[in-house]
Amino acid sequence: MMPRIGPSGSLCAEFARRVAPAVRSALCALVLLAAAERSCLGNVTARPAPLLPGAAVSKLERTLEEVRTLCSEWSTEPGGRRRIAGALARRLETASTIWQAESDRIALQQRRHPELADRLDRQLVRLRELHDEISTLCERVTAPVPESHSGPVRTDYVQLLTRKRIASVEDLIRVVARFTGASSGWGPPREAGNAAFREWLDGAGPRLERRGVVGPCDSFHLRARLNRGLLSLLFARALHLDGGLAGSVFGMTERTAYHDLVFARVVPAGGEDYPVSGAELLSVMQRARLAQQRWGRAP
Questions:
Q1: Residue 281: closest CA among 129, 176, 153
Q2: Rounded Cα–Cα distance for residues 280 and 14 (Å)
Q3: Does residue 152 belong to any structural domain of this protein?
Q4: Phi, psi of 275 (to 5 degrees)
Q5: Do 138 and 171 fall into the same domain?
Q6: Distance between CA atoms of 196 and 189, rounded to whole angstroms?
Q7: Residue 229 pLDDT exceeds 90
Q8: Is residue 259 situated within a structural domain?
Q9: Same domain, yes or no, for 188 and 289?
């Protein structure tokens, strides 16, 4: 049976006339469904959020036990120290990731739900204690001690550094000097003041320059926030990377160094302007040591 042709003489006009009511009904149903979904989501977000589960604490506790086991194997299995150092670096990276994610999450929950602040604070303190202990153990075991070094390794600076949400350029200089052997320790404590740090830098600076980590034209603002670009530049120099073709043409820049170290799995991806926390700075130093072992290079 042929369809009836409308006054316009077009099959399209007839089709539109018959289908239009169904399309309008479907659109109205979609609008009503979207409104109901927004209403439900609004009710859900308005409810008080439950306390954060202890999964992060439990995972850090398990990581701490694994680190303690690896530290005991470090002294009993000298032949497996490369494997143990890699395992410790992975545990430290896991602990740093958990600590950063959970501290940000707890801070957000504290702003949204002030009534839970005390209990969230206690959980944050426990997370910090576990992360600090993991960082201290990893650094104490794997840090090379120069022959001229005397006395125990300072761990108070490591604990302070792991708590910093954003490290400074001064922290980078301390860590790179320790990594390259330009200094036998982390430098003077912060309580000693700027004069003591400048005196330490007068001794470590020329050694860093001889190792090619800093140049005579480099200028650093020690109190500035550290980003991954400058972090990559100094560690790339410490690892004696040349930057490939781009480095030979334009010289080693922060961008070139960043891409090289991301490819080498020393620095995490995310952009060279991304700020660096203290825990990430220590984790990069551990991964740089692993890269040295893979490449057979010494700083």
A1: 176
A2: 68
A3: no
A4: -70, 155
A5: no
A6: 8
A7: yes
A8: yes
A9: yes
- Measure Cα distances from 249 to 140, 218, 244, 256, 280 in Å: 40, 19, 9, 11, 31
Tell me: pLDDT of 49 over 60.
no
Residues 123, 195: one domain? Answer: no
Shared domain check, 293 and 170: yes
Confirm whether 34 is domain-assigned.
no
More confident residue, 285 or 110: 285
CATH code for the domain of 58: 1.20.58
Output the six-digit token pair for 241.
Answer: 């990377």
First to last CA, the chain: 89
* Contact by Cβ (8 Å): 146, 183: no
Indicate if 137 and 223 belong to the same structural domain. Answer: no
pLDDT at 297: 59
Range of the domain at 214: 166-299
Could you give the number of structural domains in the chain?
A: 2
Confidence tier at 169 by pLDDT (50, 70, 90): very high
Same domain, 131 and 231: no
Which residues are paired to 275 by β-bridges? 227
What DSSP assignment string belongs to the chain? -PPPP-TT--HHHHHHHHHHHHHHHHHHHHHHHHHHHHHHHHHHHHSPPPPPPTHHHHHHHHHHHHHHHHHHHHHH-GGGHHHHHHHHHHHHHHHHHHHHHHHHHHHHHHHH-GGGHHHHHHHHHHHHHHHHHHHHHHHHHHS---TT--SPPP-HHHHHHHT-SS-BHHHHHHHHHHHHTSSSSS-S-GGG-HHHHHHHHHHHHHHHHHTTSS-TT----TTSBPBHHHHHHHHHHHTT---HHHHHHH---HHHHHHHHHHTTSS-SS-TTSB--HHHHHHHHHHHHHHHHHHT---
Q: Are residues 211 and 283 in the same domain?
A: yes
Q: What is the pTM of this model?
A: 0.56
pLDDT of residue 142: 63
Instruction: Say yes or no: 131 and 183 in one domain.
Output: no
